[in-house]
TrEMBL record:
<keyword id="KW-0326">Glycosidase</keyword>
<dbReference type="Pfam" id="PF01120">
    <property type="entry name" value="Alpha_L_fucos"/>
</dbReference>
<comment type="similarity">
    <text>Belongs to the glycosyl hydrolase 29 family.</text>
</comment>
<keyword id="KW-0378">Hydrolase</keyword>
<dbReference type="InterPro" id="IPR013780">
    <property type="entry name" value="Glyco_hydro_b"/>
</dbReference>
<dbReference type="InterPro" id="IPR017853">
    <property type="entry name" value="GH"/>
</dbReference>
<dbReference type="InterPro" id="IPR016286">
    <property type="entry name" value="FUC_metazoa-typ"/>
</dbReference>
<feature type="domain" description="Glycoside hydrolase family 29 N-terminal">
    <location>
        <begin position="50"/>
        <end position="376"/>
    </location>
</feature>
<dbReference type="InterPro" id="IPR000933">
    <property type="entry name" value="Glyco_hydro_29"/>
</dbReference>
<comment type="function">
    <text>Alpha-L-fucosidase is responsible for hydrolyzing the alpha-1,6-linked fucose joined to the reducing-end N-acetylglucosamine of the carbohydrate moieties of glycoproteins.</text>
</comment>
<dbReference type="InterPro" id="IPR057739">
    <property type="entry name" value="Glyco_hydro_29_N"/>
</dbReference>
<keyword id="KW-0732">Signal</keyword>
<protein>
    <recommendedName>
        <fullName>alpha-L-fucosidase</fullName>
        <ecNumber>3.2.1.51</ecNumber>
    </recommendedName>
</protein>
Amino acid sequence: MNIHFNIKRFGLVLGLMVLSLNVIYAQEKVVKTDTIPLKHGAHRIDKRTDSVMAKWRGYGLGQFIHWGLYAIPGGEWNGKTYNGAAEWIRSWNGIPKSTYDSLIYKFNPTKFNPESWAKTAKQMGAKYVTITTKHHDGFCLWPSKYTKYTVANSPYKKDIIGPLVNAYNKEGIDVILYFSIMDWNQPGWRYEIKTKEDSIAFEGFKKFTRNQLLELLNKYPTAKGLWFDGTWDKSWVKQAAFADELEKEMRALRPGLIIGSRFRPDDFGKRHNDSNGRLMGDYEQGWERKIPNKIEDVHGNDWDCVMTVPENQWGYNKAWNGHIKTVNELIEMTAKCVSLGGNFVLNFGPKGDGSIRKEEIDLAAGIGNWMRVNNEAIYNCQYAGLEKQDWGYFTGKTGSNKVYMIIFNVPVSGAFRVKLPAKTSITTASLLEQPNTTLKVEEISENQYFIHTSARADNKPFVIVLDLNKKAGNASGTYEKAKI
Ligand code: FHN
């Protein structure tokens, strides 16, 4: 009787296990048994392993472009300078919709030259660009057939996105299309759905959004991905099923498409990470104007950091207030991002006439000058797995034994400390800018070295290349051991 009961209980437990395994399988093998069942959570546990994503991972440095009608007032309205982010001027400044929307009749960027934008990016060393096709104000930089609020109805009349995609691609730069889900121009957009009427309106808006996204993917087939924004409102975070379905549809249309973690909410309205803490998207999009401090902060995800030059402006603002980042600071941010396995994306806000402000051109040139000599330490590099030191950042070349020390702080001794994991030693050390110069490597204690350089006169960051030997065990052990 007892045995019979135990067998029955065992059968029940087994049955439940099989059932839960089926549930797991139905959710694309993502969740573990101890997680919250989700229909619209993450669909993958680990990083993507395909070549498109591998290329994205190797970009290192990118450019962001915020351009739209807001560039015309450039942060100034009725003679008053507005202090918030220029692209939000309509909302922050309480400008009536019809007044703001009539900026469309002033959009005629006679100095717009996509080739020269692309050349600036190329010169800076950017490997990809993220371009606003439509920001929160809803103005489309492409002639969308689903709304009248586009370039086609401006005095300029012509498509902006197509020529940009072509010009950047010609320079070997990949394009990602920025798209704001929130759309202040669309009558169907709601911040929150409170009534039946809201719900009907928002259903129409969802169809419109789907149409526009498929239109973009069909019109610009070389675009590598979509960078979503404006997905935080109560209306959108309830659209888990719709967004999930749409994401699948877009991925089916463009295999390899890269979509960050800002697009879809999960069943409980959670964004970026689902209710089980898993990333929803191909990379983490939460690093806006901030950079992680240590590798643990990125939780094993791919990620990029998007950064403004002044503290607050994405779109063109005539007044750049507060601290303006320098070339060296921006190079350091790039190095830090790559050292933690991410890409660094620097924002540009072109003017209403289509030209790029001088400050941005100068920054691009300054970064580019450094990148031309040192890009080997940035492109196709990743977290090197070494302990961070005060002099700067380690990056590691994917698939090789090369490690780069990107130096921002030079010790007065001229000796740079390197700590290696056990069973690893340094074969050679050299300057990236002078590959034939061999630097002296001194083994100072177990797995610890000093790399010696002679004094430097310039104030630019520079790079030391280490060739590591991961097979030969520890180095000579000739250092003087501490005596007890
Ligand atoms: O509101 C926008 C902002 O204007 C800008 O586009 C940034 C870029 O990451 N995204 C939003 C704020 O998170």
